[in-house]
Design goal:
heterodimer, A: about 300 residues, mainly alpha, MetI-like fold, about 75% helix, flat, B: about 280 residues, 13 helices, about 0% strand
Chain lengths: ~300, ~280
Amino acid sequence: MAATDPMLDSGADFRTRLQNWLPKIVLAPSFAVMVIFVYGFIAFTIYLSFTDSRMLPSYDLVGWQNYERLFRVRQWDTALVNLGIFAGLYIVISTIIGLLLAIFLDQKIRGEGFLRPIFLYPMALSFIVTGTAWKWILDPAIGLEVTMQRWGWESFQFDWIKDSEMAIYTIVIAAVWQSSGFVMAMFLAGLRGIDNEILKAAQMDGASNFQMYRRIILPQLRPAFLSAFVILSHLAIKSYDLVVAMTDGGPGTSTWLPALFMYEYTFTRNQMGIGASSAVIMLMTIAAIMVPYLYAELREQK
Amino acid sequence: MARAVTTQRKAINTAIAWIVGLLIFFPILWTILTSFKTEAEAIANPPVFLFFDWTLENYGVVQERSNYMRFLWNSVFLAGGSTLLGIIIAVPAAWSMAFVPSKRTKDILLWMLSTKMLPAVGVLYPIYLLCIRLGVLDNRFALVVVLMLINLPIIVWMLYTYFKEIPGEILEAARMDGAGLKEELLYVLTPMAVPGIASTILLNFILAWNEAFWTLNLTSVDAAPLTAFIASYSSPEGLFFAKLSAASTMAIAPILILGWFSQKQLVRGLTFGAVK
């Protein structure tokens, strides 16, 4: 140790120390940004939900009052029921159609390369634009209904979008349209990953097509089902653009979803405290779905 | 899953797949076709499909009346700016996690990814209030920062998964040949990382281009991109059918083109890397 030149030694030392620290230093900005802007800001929202903020934020704590009031508000009920209907149907139907499409596209379809991006387009395009297109198609005065009637199907009726009981289902239609191709892509990747040998062996043993899907293929798609569920459910809870473009919450408040509720209560009704408590509920719901999933992923990958 | 499928079955399957494809594409196709019609033809009943007098008039009117180009420029600025900024911050972070992993790397990554799934409403208040406090509501630069923050987790994650695919042996070989950190970065890693970075840029550009929650809530006039412009266009009843279609077509055209080339990246990004 004493034999080496101290100048040279500290130089080399600095270099190795820098090499060791560099990865941490370059990671730090991303890390810090996410800690502050996600957790710091969420903490602020949680704090707001316990204050009597209205148009402007206030810092006077009022305990659970906003939450108690939130669950007494009729529109929040509507938003929750709508979310239940919407998320349930959206997840189930998108998964079924997506799976069927994937099985279909896996049968050596001619022009698959051309079809795949087309199936994916609805998910890639702005929901504001596609939502607007759906709004016309479903509008009884200018869309499907009147077209069918002019083409001779006089009794054809489809005015759900104007019907406060049925309007939420039109959102389901548009949302399913949007996601099915995307879910298909997830399942298709899963199908392509299945070992051919197993299928050949099953076929030799005389398994029918149906049996093969039920007993071998579908069970192997479990990871794809799981990811599809997590992704679709978080999309459902976050849904905002599509509703804004299609019905803007109407007729009346019949198609309000939680994200729309929060927006309306904050910016048009100046009830920031209640809005914040609704945001916190949404956060908790997503976390409840996501945390177990990520935890499972983490254990699997280790 | 290649299995023997009879020719007849194959033909039927192909036909059905194409019909479904056409049905799925129909709303988009209809929007595009309508943009080339006159207002009268646009609401004609029964609808005219292809045989109408194609006109570009709507595009001119939309530009003239509402200065469409400004919204288009805002869209390009916001999507491009936030992507660029995000990439600059994320590349070193992803590099560090992919090539110099520590015990906590996996945890940090999943934690970052989890933040992308959280609803934007959770951080709307602080960002909104901060924008008011700083006087940058409806400001392009502020929105670039916000969009970058929103998409940063997905950028880091995507870059990480791409970087992870670069074989470590190449680095070891380079180190054995005496390459330092600088040579390693410049001559070995960068050329191999470019495709992954390009894919991430493409994906993030699409995500930022389509972003509506933040652009609707934080802009009014000056910084409003196409999504906000189309959302603000009045009800479809009346005479604006074809013009709204023209505006919509211009808003989706770049994504129709980009989406064609980047479908793989799109799936990969939207599934958070679950599908490679």
